[in-house]
Every structure is written in C-alpha cells, then in structure tokens.
Design brief:
By secondary structure, the protein is mainly alpha-helical. The protein has 15 helices and no strands.
Length: 395
Amino acid sequence: ITKKINAKLLLITVTLGILTAIGSISIDIYLPAFGVMANYFKVPIVRIESTVTLFLFGMSFGQLFIGPMSDVWGRKTPLRVGLAVYVLCSICCVITSSFLVFLTLRFIQGLAGSACQVICRALVGDIYKDKNAAHVFTILQIVMGVSPILSPIAGGMLAEASTWKYLFLIMAVVSGAGLIGCLTILPAGKPPATDKKFYLPVIFKNYIYCVKHPAFINYAVVRAISNSAAFSFITASPFIFTQIYALSKKQFGFVFSGLAVGIIAAGILNTKLLKYFGVQKITKSAMTCQLVTGLMMIIVLYFNGPFSVLLVLIFIFLSMLGLILPNTTSLYIGAIPSFSGSASALVGAVSYLSAFLITSILSVLYNGTAYPMILMMYFCAVVAYLCLQHKNLAT
C-alpha cells in the first residue's frame, strides 16, 4: 500500500512539474531561433523579442481571473480548458505565416498557459502545508529546471529555417501530456464553492483580502521581483551571447542549459537546508548572495573583464533563484491558505506583469551592450532584498 501511495505521489509531482514547466518551455525553447524567425516573418529581431513580452502579458492577465475561478468552480475544469486551448494555439503557431496572427496566438497561449501556473501552485497549497509545501515547491522547481536545460538545446538544434516550427509542436506535445495527466492523475484539490457563482465583485473582494495581509503582499513582491531578474536575462541573453560574445546558436543553447543546472542544484540544496534552517533565513541568505554577485557582474562589465568570469557570476546569481522562488512561494501561499487560488493568481499576475514591464523597459534601453541586462538584474535583486527587510516580515 505504501509503495502504491508513493508511486501516486510521484506521478502527481511529475504531472505538476510538467504543467509548471509549460510557461518556461513556451519561452526558453525558441530563444535560439529568434534570428531565423525574424527572417521568416520578415521583421526585425526586436519584434520577435516582443512575442515573449506579449506572452508574459497574457500569463499575467489570465491568472487574475483563472485563480479566483478555480476557487469558485474547483481546480480541474479551468486547468483542462486552459491546456486544451494552449495545445490548439501551439499547433496554429506552426501553421500561420502571418506575424500579426502569430503575435495574437502567443498572447492567447499566455492566457491559456496561465491556468497551469496558478492552479499548480494552488493545488500544492491545498495538499501540503508549511515546510512540506516548501519542500514540494522545491521539487517542482527541480523538475521544472529540466526545461531550461533541454529546451535551449532542442531550440539550438532545430533553429533552422526548415525546422524551427517543430519547436511549437514540442510545446503542443508537452502540454498534451500535461492534459492527459490532469484528466487521469491529479487530485481535485479544494472543492468548488457551494453556490459555484463567479462574480467580479467576489474576485475583487478576494484580492482585497489578500493585499490586506502585509506578510502576503511582501512575500508576493519579493517573489515577483526576483522572478523578473530571471526574465531580464532570458529576454536579453540571446542578443548578448550571440551578437556581443559571438556564440553560435548551439553554443548559446548549451550555455543557457548550463546556467539552468545551477537552479536545479540550488533546489536540491534547498531540500537539505530546510531540514536545519527556517524558510525565511534561507531566502535572506540567497538574496544576499545575489547582491554580492550582481555588484561583481557590474564591475567585471565596467572593466571589460573576461566573458568566462561574467558567465560564472551570472551562474551563481541565477542559481540563487532555486532557493528564493520555492521558499517565497510557500510563504505567500501559507499566509492565506483559505484563498490560495486568489493568492496564487495575484502573485502569478504580479510576477508576469513585472516581467512584462521589465522586458519592455529592456527593449527601450537597448544600446547594443550587456549593461541594460546586468543593471536590470541587479536592480531587481536590490528591490527584492529591500522588500524582504520590511518591518512586517519576521527574520
């Protein structure tokens, strides 16, 4: 019986990991193909970068409604619908030859994919509590970490004029596997509300309840800003690594994947540290490390230091997200467990909205150097650290 329970929990965790990774796959896998796609659609490469920005906006906007919807109607129905729409959009991205249609599909993909992000976090909050929740979120972070390793490698191998559309077929296959897992494996989580009525005033009431809890809003901002540091790197790194530092598409894929290994390693370390230290203490230490390495990145850039040194510092900086993201997620979900769907939606929306704004600012600040990316990453680390020190957070 114990073996059957453990096997079921493993399948549930893997399914949640796949669903959580969909957002990352939707971006990471086609980064090496930006140049080829620009040629195909006959637009500047900065327009291709806007497909990431629009996807992030869809993810942000969609979570604001899907989270509260899952509190009212239950977790599985919105998740199934979202996955089905995502699969359909992925297939349509392969077919279309219009850049405007492609942009629209990416926005709808973001809306549909937001169901995966918000409901997965809410399900973990339904099932696990306190350190157990932090432990499961860490495992999901590790499972999800496989995506930034494999996705850019696949993207680098398929980033050719004749094969780049296969990348969106991969998105369809992965999301299809998640849909099958949702239909067969995932538990229902929190039961639907008794009246099953979905009103806008109820949504706003739930969100007001969330933001009135200082601990929740502080942890939410910390996670959102920390996540934005990663998106600063994701958005700008294709140009910086391939144009400034002259890496090939395949080399970029392997370097990007190598950086993702650090996040996985930090996630594994987090599962060990949670046995001996508090969640807040681990988070604070990781963010302090980001402040130090971020400052060193700026110094290396200013003195035109070796690319290898800069790469090592970026590796350390991003690795700390393997500690920060799962721990802050467990903290904000635990702050208001009765409204975990709305809480997850609000934080997810703020995270992706923050990423949307920062990637938009990066496009404006584009000057052909690595400074905008590095300075934005450091800015995010500083703001997140200051939020963590807020008087309402116990240390």
